[in-house]
Every structure is written in structure tokens, then in C-alpha cells.
TrEMBL record:
NCBIfam families: IS21_help_AAA. SUPFAM superfamilies: P-loop containing nucleoside triphosphate hydrolases. Keywords: ATP-binding, Nucleotide-binding. This is Transposase-related ATP-binding subunit. GO terms for molecular function: ATP binding. Pfam families: IstB_IS21 (PF01695). GO terms for biological process: DNA replication. Belongs to the IS21/IS1162 putative ATP-binding protein family. It comes from sediment metagenome. SMART domains: AAA. Residues 98-231 form the AAA+ ATPase domain.
Length: 244
């Protein structure tokens, strides 16, 4: 009865990991050979892991990543031009900590989205809040926010995100308001957050895709400032999967 009351109180205090570990200890006779400090240390460790796993799951749910990707599963075949040393450096997430950008370019189907999600997943594992958007969908949501008057709230949510992922930038043309919104998003993140952009268009052509030269200068300058650049090469990985 006393054990049951202890478990109930632990759960009531939201110490669920400790409660589970305590119940397990009651079923393991060899635990009696351990000192109080040793057993208590095991309980605290389980609670810590439970809390960390729950927090990670919350960050991953919030991030809404398009793919379940991990940096450990990346394909480093030489033909892709993806360097392990670069990914190892980015995996440390110092670029997120110091509010830098990552730009990933390459032909369609070469794994840009997977790489972006893998880096965002690693950021979540390191304790950073991330948020993924498919490029055209992001600007549709911004346009909808303009329509219902919620754009300040929506832009504030993006500004608070430690890592913003915009996938397939440049795939759809924007109107002048769309480009101004994009500039505001980037400007809000200057020195406050990291941004990861993927695009099938080479970086040197981005300026040409924005009709207003002044906006183009401002947007491209903010994107490439302090940016790590990755160019993925090779054939479409989707075609390779279809053949297999």
C-alpha cells in the first residue's frame, strides 16, 4: 500500500519517469544490494531521461518536419558532393546558436529536403526549437494572415523560432507584398535566429528571380550573410529508389 501511495504521489507531481523506475525497482530483488544513494541516483536519472525525451518529442511535433531524417543516415557518396566534414561541423549546431544561415541548392530530387530535415532534427535534439515550411505554403499562410488580420501574430511566431526551415525557395513567384513579407521575416531573424533555405535554383540566379532590384538586394544580402553553402549534385534519388 505504501509503495502504491508513493507511485501515485510521484505521478501527481508529474515525476512519471521516477514513478516508473521506482515500480521497476520493487520488482528487482538485486536492487536491495544497492545503497540508498545508488538507488536514488537511478531514479533521478530515469526522471531526467523521461523529461528530456518528452521535451524532444514536443520540439519535433512543433517543428512539423516533412521527413523523418537523421544526419547519421545521410548519403555521402562522392558523386553527391556532400562532404562529411561539413555536415559534422553543422551537426554541432553552433550555426544555430550563433544565428547563422545554411543554404542548400541542387537539382530536384537530390535530397535537399532530407538534408534540411536532418539538420533541423539534430537542432531539436540539441534543444533548439525548429519550424519547417514548404516555401509556397509559407507565403500562402502569410497571405491568409494578411486577409484575417493575424499577420503580426504569425510573423512573431516565426521570429521566435530558433531555426526556421524554408524548403524549395523560389519555386513559386511572389507578388511585391510577398517579397516584402519575406524581407521582414529575414530582417526579424537578423542576430536572433538561424534560417535554413533549400532551392533548386543556383544561388547566383536568386537576384534575377525577384523583380524589384532593391528588394532583391536586401533579401539576398540577408540570406547569404554568415551563410554556410551546400551544393548537392547528382541524379534524382527518387529515380534511383524507383529503379530499386
Amino acid at each position: 500500500m505504501l509503495n502504491e501511495q508513493t507511485v501515485n504521489k510521484l505521478n501527481a507531481m508529474k515525476l512519471n519517469g521516477m514513478a516508473d523506475a521506482y515500480e521497476e525497482q520493487q520488482k528487482q530483488p538485486d536492487m536491495n544490494d544497492l545503497s540508498f544513494n545508488e538507488r536514488f541516483s537511478l531514479l533521478v536519472e530515469r526522471q531526467w531521461l523521461w523529461r528530456e525525451n518528452r521535451a524532444l518529442q514536443a520540439r519535433l511535433t512543433y517543428a512539423q518536419l516533412k521527413e523523418q531524417a537523421c544526419v547519421e543516415d545521410l548519403d555521402f557518396r562522392e558523386s553527391r558532393g556532400l562532404k562529411r566534414s561539413v555536415i559534422d561541423q553543422l551537426s554541432a549546431c553552433d550555426w544555430v546558436r550563433f544565428h547563422q544561415n545554411v543554404i542548400v541548392t541542387g537539382p530536384t530530387g537530390t535530397g535537399k529536403t532530407y538534408l534540411a530535415c536532418a539538420l533541423a532534427h539534430k537542432a531539436c535534439r540539441e534543444g533548439y526549437r525548429s519550424l519547417y515550411f514548404y516555401g509556397p505554403k509559407l507565403f500562402r499562410e502569410v497571405a491568409s494572415a494578411h486577409a484575417d488580420g493575424s499577420v503580426p501574430k504569425f510573423l512573431k511566431k516565426i521570429a521566435r523560432t530558433q531555426l526556421l526551415v524554408i524548403d524549395d525557395w523560389g519555386l513559386s513567384k511572389l507578388n511585391d507584398q510577398g517579397y516584402r513579407d519575406f524581407l521582414e521575416i529575414l530582417d526579424d531573424r537578423q542576430g536572433c535566429g538561424a534560417t535554413l533555405i533549400t532551392s533548386q535554383f543556383p544561388l547566383k540566379t536568386w537576384h534575377e528571380t525577384i523583380p524589384d532590384p532593391t528588394l532583391a538586394d536586401a533579401i539576398v544580402d540577408r540570406l547569404i550573410h554568415n551563410a554556410h553553402r551546400i551544393e548537392i549534385k547528382g541524379d534524382s534519388m527518387r529515380k534511383r529508389k524507383d529503379k530499386n
